[in-house]
Amino acid sequence: MLGVLPWVLYWVLIGNVMFRLVVCLVLAVAVGTQVVSRLRRQPWRIFDLGSIVVFAILTLTAFVFTDAILERWLQPLGNLGLFLVALVGLLVGRPFVWEYATEFVDATTARSDRLHAVTTTMTWLWVAVFAAMTVVTMIPPLVDEAATIRDAAGLLSVLCYWVLPCVLLGLAASASGLVPPWFEIRSVPVEQRETEETPAAATQSSAPSDIASDTLVLDVPQDSRHDEPFAVVLHGAPAGSAVELTATGNDLHGRLWRSAAMFAAPASGPVDIALLDPLSGDWERADGDAPLWAMRFAADGVTPDLFVPPTDPWLVTVTARVERVGEVRRTVRRHPPAEGVRSSTVEIDGRPGLLALPPGTAPADGWPAVACFGGSEGGFESQVGPAMLLASRGFAALAASWVDEGAPIVAVPLERFGTTVRFLADHSEVDSDRVAGMAVSRGAEGLLSAVCAHEGPRCRGLVLISPSSVTWQAIGSEGEIPDAPSWTVAGRDVPWLPVRSGALMSQLVRNAWWASRDAAAHRPTLIRLRPAYEAGLRGPATGAADARIPAEQADGPLLLVTGTEDAVWPSGPMAQEVLGRRLRPSDEHLSCRGAGHLVRLGVLPTDAQWTGGIALGGTRTAQAVAQRSATTRITRFLSAVTANSGDDRRRAVGTRRR
User: Fold this and answer.
1) How many CB atoms neighbour CB 112 within 10 A?
2) Which of 26, 588, 610, 650 gives 20 to 30 Å between its CA and that of 281?
3) Which of 516, 518, 521 is nearest to 301 (CA)?
4) pLDDT at 415
5) Is the sign of the CA dihedral 359, 362, 368, 374 positive or negative?
6) Contacts of 310 by beta carbon, 8 Å cutoff, 6+ apart
7) What is the pLDDT of residues 289-317, one digit of tens each?
């Protein structure tokens, strides 16, 4: 902080000591501080160098003009110089607060975009103060020709030359000293919530006993897969009677979810929720699947979070209550695989996975196959459900891990994707010529990059959910990792675009302010990451070109699935960029209006589209539509691109679109 010393000395001495002596002294001190900094091997700072220039100009001015002019204008000229020095530092990307703050943090933090954003905001505060000081000190010489900095009896001179500048400096110094500690202290509850509220897997609660009725019959599929329709029909309700339908179930963590709706029994026929609009409740239109996707988080005293289905069959209890008649209740089971699906754990280069094979004996040439990769959550568990679903539909599916669960995404070899695809292709029950890939988010970024790399894996086609068109900077639990790539290929770093976490500062400050209130009310404290990625995409064109995934080099067709309300990153625009570079009629883009980042297969509750404090985006109804559309389009696409023969494949591709 030696660079500030000349200015402190200047403000103390100006008006109290001879002007020429003051400016010569502060110039000497400014030069001396730089000599000391060089001896300490400290870096050059624009603020320090600019201060020397300003004091040199003030020294020249002091010897050119008379004291009569100096005692009126030297103070505002000094403030103007300080304002310009601080402003120039901002404009060239080196705010002076950042230049000094890097002395007091570790090297990793010093290179982070978040520190740069915080210090940039604080520097703007100081620039505004310096501008105000300049304006205030210019008022006396402009308004009163007799006013000078030495005029101790004039109210205008005392206020504008001394009182107001000192008050402004004091306020800015207080803000600079108090805001960072406040932010750090108030951010602790946010970080604690992310750790303390991370739930553990739990056993589902015992289902209540079924209730039968002499007059009411509740027709619900006893056993069905997550991707199969959920038809609920109530027989025996008198015409016009009020019917309340509820559905409840527990998620992987044992937390309760519940949906409810009121119906009026029709004049004839049963209460079929696939045909009847509810009068009120958790959904608005006739929809047989609504009792499932419209479930809301209903656990008491717990902050809502994303629904994760149990690994065992999901027990769903459906209850129908009819006024003046009674109630009927049934508990049914929903599960990922069809009966007979075979699953086994595997290990690929030391990383675990799960292989799911369709029921029955494999065809002579083997099953078509799909390698499934998750996102930044790591591990393979998030892909077990999709793999089971695909196995139920006739694909050998491998839920694979490309990064360990919770590990940072930094310098991950793209070869891991190729190794996994080849592992699946080499399985004795798989047709090695009919292997496709499916991946989500950062996994989609890695899979597409791997396929497009030299000697990358050969895939018949790729399903990319919430994909990227570029490769991004490494990220970890604390945000972006400075100067580090997410990926490597053949041991070399893959070019990347920066994740501009500084764009999230307004959200972080808001979260720090509201964290305690959110915790008390069991509300999630969320952050939308999308602005950080959008800011990265707006970076230098040369960097964007280097980091662009060469999607045109992928041989097979692509199906890109995106949500228009993706809160994690701009997957829709990035998908359009990928398709724009390829211009192939065999590619498809399923853009789900109103959906967010996480578009899952099957019918699952869509409330609480966030996890771990990260907002995913999307409305409940839009997510439900997206889930069903994605399930249909993805399975149809995979069937087309992995068709058994060339003729079959051409026919399938020609009939993919409805």
Assistant:
1) 19
2) 610
3) 521
4) 95
5) positive
6) 204, 250, 251, 252
7) 999 999 999 998 889 999 999 988 999 99
For residue 449 the two structure tokens come to 């990059």
Rounded CA separation 492/203 (Å): 45
Cβ(243)–Cβ(251) below 8 Å:
no
**588 contacts 565 by C-beta, under 8 angstroms:** no
Tokens 């090297």 belong to which residue?
Answer: 107
Instruction: Measure the CA–CA gap between 38 and 253, rounded to whole angstroms.
Output: 59
Q: How far apart are the first and last CA of the chain?
A: 68
Q: Retrieve residue 70's tokens.
A: 């100096």
Q: What is the CB-side half-sphere exposure of residue 475 using CA atoms within 13 A? A: 19
Q: Which range, 40-54, 162-176, 341-355, has the best average confidence (pLDDT)?
A: 341-355
Cα 559 to Cα 562: distance, rounded to the nearest angstrom? 10
The pLDDT value recorded for residue 201 is 80
Instruction: Locate all alpha helices (DSSP H) within 522-615, ordered by sequence.
Output: 530-537, 541-547, 571-582
How is 150-197 classified by DSSP, letter by letter?
T-SS-HHHIIIIIIHHHHHHHHHHHHHHHHHHHHHHHHHHHHHHHHHT
Amino acid, res. 596? G
Parallel, antiparallel, or unpaired for β 351-357 and 430-440?
unpaired
- Give DSSP secondary structure letters for 464-484: EES--SB-BEEEETTEEEEEE
> Do 41 and 57 contact (CB within 8 A), yes or no?
no
Using CB atoms within 10 Å of the CB of residue 57, give its burial: 0 to 12 exposed, 13 to 18 middle, 19+ buried. Answer: middle
Rounded to the nearest 10 degrees, how much is the dihedral formed by the CA atoms of 19, 22, 26, 29? 150
Helices (H), 488-570: 505-521, 530-537, 541-547
pLDDT band, very low/low/confident/very high, at 102 (cuts 50, 70, 90): confident
Residue with tokens 């308004």: 143
Both tokens assigned to 416:
């891991």
Q: Is the pLDDT of residue 223 over 50?
A: yes
Please choose, from the candidates 488, 433, 444, the residue with its C-alpha nearest in 3D space to the C-alpha of residue 466: 444
Q: Residues for the chain: how many in total?
A: 658
Sign of CA dihedral 84, 85, 89, 92: positive
3-class secondary structure per residue, 632-648: HHHHHHHHHHCCCCHHH
Amino acid letter, residue 438: M
- Tell me the C-alpha distance between 86 and 91, whole Å: 9
Which of these, 174, 159, 162, lies nearest to 75 by C-alpha position? 162
486, 496 Cβ separation under 8 angstroms: yes
**What amino acid occupies position 657?**
R
Place of tokens 């946010």: 190
- High-pLDDT (> 70) share of the chain, %: 94
Angle of the 505-521 helix axis to the 113-143 helix axis, nearest 10: 110
Sole residue written with tokens 């129908």: 320
In angstroms, rounded to a whole number, what is the distance separating the alpha carbons of residues 601 and 638? 14
The structure tokens listed for 530 are: 């999308």
Which token pair is 65? 């003009």
Q: What span, in angstroms and rounded, lies between the C-alpha atoms of 628 and 554? A: 27
Range in 285-289, 453-457, 582-586 the model is least confident about:
453-457
- Judge contact between 499 and 547, C-beta under 8 A: no
Structure tokens that stand for 366 in this block: 């083997």
Strand, coil or helix: what is 121? Answer: helix
Angle at which helices 620-641 and 384-392 pack, to 10 degrees?
A: 50
Helix (H) / strand (E) element for 451: namely helix 442-452
653 phi, psi to nearest 5 deg: -65, -40
pLDDT of residue 40: 80
DSSP state of 41: T
pLDDT digits (tens, 9 = 90+) for 121-131: 889 999 999 99
